[in-house]
Design goal:
This protein is an all-alpha fold. The protein has helices at about 5-10, 15-30, 50-60, 65-80, 85-95, 115-125, 130-135, 140-150, 165-190. Helix 2 (about 15-30) crosses helix 9, helix 6 crosses helix 8 and helix 6 (about 115-125) runs parallel beside helix 9 (about 165-190). The protein is globular.
């Protein structure tokens, strides 16, 4: 069942598909990595839904997401809330979960790289990647895997900064994957003797249209 914090996240990321579409164009031009002034508040109480809503709804206006902001959002995605009150604690926990490397030690207000976000999201959604990601599950190949699944704007480099709008698109798509997985698990738990259903892939290419009828030239009808 989705927690109240996850419902807030779903509300905030309702425009995730639009964000990815807009982000595709921005990715081609790139986004210089900068130090961000006036970062958003991330140390509010977990029980303050108003502060969390403000966090998510302010992100689209940001030209880049700071590392502290990005990690804060990742903990909400993974756990429903951020249990940490300091950036140092977020970094330590992110290291322990394998979201970032053991030597990763960037400033809180430095713009987050797309590769950093992609590597963390890949861990959170339990990505089963290709051969290169399996061998080198770091920012570069995590970014490529998420691009191939439509979760990161095409043309992205792992070294590029990510805008607030693009960040929301990635988080929203990751939440979709988590929600579908949880729904499948709930169905299997409710019917333990039933054969496990195949997990729908939200990033799979659409099925090809049916071939026209050879006699009439009309496309065959299908029953919903």
């Amino acid at each position: 069942m989705m927690t109240p914090d996850h419902r807030t996240l779903r509300l905030a990321t309702h425009a995730g598909a639009l964000a990815l579409a807009a982000g595709a164009a921005l990715a081609l031009a790139g986004c210089a990595r900068t130090t961000i002034e006036n970062t958003l508040e991330t140390n509010y109480a977990a029980a303050d839904p108003g502060a969390q809503v403000n966090f998510w709804h302010t992100l689209p206006e940001r030209s880049a997401v700071a590392n502290d902001e990005g990690l804060h959002g990742l903990f909400i995605l993974a756990d429903g809330s951020d249990p940490h009150s300091t950036y140092e604690a977020r970094v330590a926990d992110a290291r322990a979960r394998g979201w970032i490397g053991s030597s990763w030690n960037e400033p809180a207000n430095l713009a987050m790289q797309r590769g950093t976000l992609a590597a963390a999201v890949a861990k959170i959604v339990q990505l089963r990647g290709g051969v290169m990601y399996s061998l080198l599950p770091g920012p570069r190949y995590a970014t490529r895997e998420l691009i191939s699944r439509g979760m990161v704007p095409p043309g992205s480099s792992e070294n590029q900064a990510i805008t607030g709008l693009e960040y929301l698109g990635v988080i929203g798509r990751a939440q979709d994957v988590i929600t579908m997985r949880e729904a499948q698990q709930a169905t299997q738990n409710a019917s333990p003797d039933a054969a496990p259903a195949a997990t729908p892939d939200p990033n799979a290419a659409p099925a090809a249209a049916p071939a026209p009828d050879s006699a009439t030239g009309a496309a065959p009808t299908t029953t919903p």
